[in-house]
Design goal:
The complex is a heterodimer of chains A (about 230) and B (about 375). Chain A has a single domain (about 5-225), classed as MetI-like (MetI-like fold), CATH 1.10.3720.10. Chain A is about 80% helix and about 0% strand. Chain A is built from 10 helices and no strands. Chain A is globular. A 6-stranded mixed beta sheet of chain B has the order 7-8-9-3-10-11, with helices on both faces. Chain B has a 5-stranded antiparallel beta sheet with strand order 2-1-4-5-6, with helices on one face. Chain B starts with a strand and ends in a 9-residue tail after the last strand. The interface of A and B includes residues 127, 137 and 138 of A.
Chain lengths: ~230, ~375
């Protein structure tokens, strides 16, 4: 593996992992709200979460620049208060990836939550368990198969996030040049064909492995919990 | 002593539930009615899993719900135990983990220790198993143990046997009887099987289309026309308490003392001095104005008619007092007319011994509380 490849692979893994860790609690909270609660504005939240699916990724990147750029409303506050810079950094790439994979995560968490019988939570209530206690001892463990499967799928998708990332944080080798960005650069350069093919193969294998792993894990855990295997 | 006072209303779609009852401290109270009459809703209101639209629920000195005062104690703080129709065991905990879940969260003193429950419900060999490895009956026993170990002040059972086949029911029922006789926890038992009610309950609340149509001691309610509407002419019959008086080893018959007379039943499984509950099906009783002779029937009880009730176009229900115990016979209207049955008529009630088998339920060895 050449240094370009390994660097891009490392960056992709790093960005995808951070994005998953960041979105996971948010996705679980949103999924819980959307499946278990009836409130005004529920449809709006649902729609906003799913926006990245229908908008061109460039638009998301542009919106992120507006909000989180060094002169953006949130970006300048983060920079001046916590000295956190998001534009043109690895963390920014993770944020862009997180926003793009959020719909995927929320969807997976909703399916995970639908596998949890509310009757078991009721049973826990009658046994004296309060809300957070119930959530951590009953709901979350029973969501585990779906959470793992969703996290791996989102991770695999995050490895290849392109449009929003290149718009928000650019294509800086060693900082924001993830696998798809490196592939794009390789295609742009006159002698990059071989590198492009190798990067493409790498992406393909990673994606395939991720999907297979997520399915196997989910099946194994569901069997262990005695849940139906359908996803 | 009154322990639970309820007066609540709940609208669900076009269905209006009105529950008004005060339940005293007397063992098992059965909430009986057909499917869809609102039994489960009623229990969920008591448990706090559902909030009534209006009304008040009080248990001992604690107000659980009061719509006017804005009180609604959440289910997890009511100190109730709840056994659901399907066991609802936590699949990611072992049997031990399930049993301890409520015990660890109980805010009451431990009156019911872990080891006692394990022994009472025969759970020793199941402790390290996973819920999915258990049979339906075993799951329900674990669920019962789990609810009891949360040290409840009141145990709610919502058709705990309904999802089991007959063999499994017969397996679990004795455990329920044992819990009732040993632990002295007030229980509300929801059922649409009158057999279960006969075996377990001391008091019955009859529910029809969201309304309480009758309530009282099991022996009284068994004679009520409202029960007849629910369980039908074939299953109606007086439920009585009797003591095993003697057992004849030669004939294999046990003699029960009932009112001023005696009743012979198959002795199998009975011991002298034991309290039994039995249901004498109204359709199995024969009435005679004179003491008949030359009959194969062994059981004859002398009595006096207290009430004759038209049951339907073909039949009448006759209530007979046989020395302090009321029995009910279903006879054809023409027989009632020909025999001129009315209040005050003296007659004999004939019961075939064999028809009693299967309708005798062994009560507690030591009867506790009033029946």
């Amino acid at each position: 593996m050449s240094s370009v490849e390994s660097q891009a692979l490392y960056l992709s893994l790093n960005v995808a992992a951070r994005s998953v860790l960041f979105t996971l609690p948010i996705a679980i909270a949103i999924a819980w709200l959307l499946t278990r609660r009836r409130f005004i504005g529920r449809m709006l939240i649902d729609a906003v979460v799913h926006l990245p699916l229908v908008l061109p990724p460039v638009v998301i990147g542009y919106l992120l620049l507006l909000l989180f750029g060094t002169r953006g409303a949130i970006g300048s506050w983060l920079l001046h208060t916590f000295d956190i810079r998001l534009a043109f950094t690895r963390s920014g790439a993770a944020l862009a990836t997180a926003v793009m994979t959020l719909p995927l995560m929320v969807r997976a968490m909703r399916i995970a939550l639908e596998h949890v019988d509310p009757g078991l939570e009721e049973a826990a209530r009658t046994l004296g368990a309060r809300a957070w206690d119930r959530f951590f001892t009953i709901t979350l463990p029973l969501m585990a198969p779906g959470i793992l499967a969703g996290a791996i799928t989102a991770f695999s998708a995050g490895l290849g996030e392109f449009g929003a990332v290149i718009t928000f944080v650019g294509n800086v080798p060693g900082e924001t040049q993830t696998l798809p960005l490196a592939l794009y650069s390789a295609l742009q350069s006159p002698n990059g064909d071989v590198l492009a093919a190798r990067l493409a193969t790498l992406s393909l294998s990673l994606g395939l492995c991720g999907l297979l792993l997520s399915e196997c894990l989910a099946r194994y855990l569901r069997r262990k919990l005695g849940q139906p295997s359908a996803t | 002593m009154t322990r639970l006072t309820i007066d609540v209303r709940k609208q669900r779609g076009s269905f209006q539930l009105h529950l008004q009852a005060s339940l005293s401290d007397g063992g098992v109270i059965a909430l009986f009615g057909r499917s869809g009459c609102g039994k489960t809703t009623a229990v969920n209101l008591i448990a706090g899993l559902l909030a009534p639209d209006s009304g008040r629920i009080q248990f001992d000195d604690t107000v659980w719900f009061d719509s006017e005062a804005g009180i609604n104690v959440p289910a997890e703080q009511r100190g109730i135990g709840y056994v659901f129709q399907n066991a609802r065991l936590f699949p990611h905990y072992s049997v031990i983990g399930n049993l301890r879940y409520g015990l660890q969260r109980s805010r009451a003193d431990v009156r019911i220790p872990f080891d006692q429950i394990v022994a009472l419900l025969g759970l020793e060999s199941l402790l390290n198993r996973q819920p999915r490895q258990l049979s339906g009956g075993e799951q329900q026993r674990v669920a019962l143990g789990r609810a009891l170990l949360s040290q409840p002040r009141l145990l709610l059972l919502d058709e705990p046997l309904a999802s089991l086949d007959q063999a499994r029911r017969d397996e679990v029922l004795p455990y329920l009887e044992r819990i009732r006789d040993v632990l002295h926890i007030p229980m509300i038992y929801v059922s649409h099987q009158f057999e279960e009610v006969i075996r377990l309950a001391s008091e019955v609340v009859l529910l029809e289309q969201g309304q309480i149509v009758a309530q009282g001691a099991l022996t009284d309610v068994s004679l009520k026309p409202e029960l007849r509407t629910i369980i039908g002419a074939e299953a109606i019959g007086a439920v009585v308490r009797a003591t095993v008086y003697s057992i004849d080893g030669d004939t294999g018959l046990a003699q029960l003392r009932l009112g001023s007379g005696h009743l012979n039943v198959e002795a199998q499984g009975l011991t002298v001095g034991q309290q039994v509950r039995l249901q004498l099906l109204a359709r199995d009783l024969i009435l005679a104005l004179e003491a008949p002779r030359y009959l194969s029937v062994r059981n004859m009880l002398k009595g006096i008619v207290t009430e004759v009730r038209i049951d339907d176009a073909q039949a009448a229900l006759v209530i007979v007092d046989v020395g302090g115990v009321l029995l009910m016979a279903r006879v054809t209207s023409s027989a009632a007319r020909d025999m001129q049955l009315r209040k005050g008529v003296m007659l004999w009630v004939l019961v075939k011994a064999v028809t009693l088998r299967g309708h005798v339920y062994a009560g507690a060895q030591k009867q506790i509380g009033p029946l």
